[in-house]
TrEMBL record:
Compositionally biased intervals (Pro residues): 100-109
GO CC, one annotated term: focal adhesion
Region Disordered, residue ranges: 87-109
Focal AT domain ranges (all copies): 46-93
Natural source organism: Sphaeramia orbicularis (orbiculate cardinalfish)
Any one Pfam family match given in the protein's UniProt record, by short name: Focal_AT
Protein's name in the database: Focal AT domain-containing protein
Length: 109
């Protein structure tokens, strides 16, 4: 019938449709060429974020170590200062020596 004849005739798309088709094919080809680069870029971004997180963690851990070292030094210096003040008070007869601390003469041997 007439429908069969219509399907067998070559169809020529309009020039606008041809331009759209060529443009779409070109765009698809461009996307296919760019995709591997985008994937590599995404992987690099993830690796940089991970490195940044690890860096922050490392800096944080180093900072905590330094703070603990400073706190330990401060505690020891404070103890030594208090011991010196206690010994001076004993020497000046303002206080009695503590049984657990060395006397003004120094540690007993």
């Amino acid at each position: 019938g007439p429908l069969t004849l219509y399907l067998l005739l070559p169809v020529r798309p309009s020039p606008h449709l041809q331009v759209v088709g060529v443009t779409l094919r070109s765009l698809i080809q461009s996307v296919d060429e760019i995709l591997p680069s985008l994937h590599r870029l995404r992987r690099a971004d993830q690796q940089m974020r991970l490195a940044q997180q690890n860096s922050i963690t490392s800096v944080k851990e180093e900072s905590q170590r330094q703070m603990l070292t400073a706190a330990h030094t401060l505690a020891l210096d404070s103890k030594n200062l208090l011991d010196a003040v206690d010994q001076d008070r004993v020497r000046a007869n303002f206080a009695e020596p503590r049984p657990d601390s060395p006397g003004p003469e120094g540690p007993e041997e």
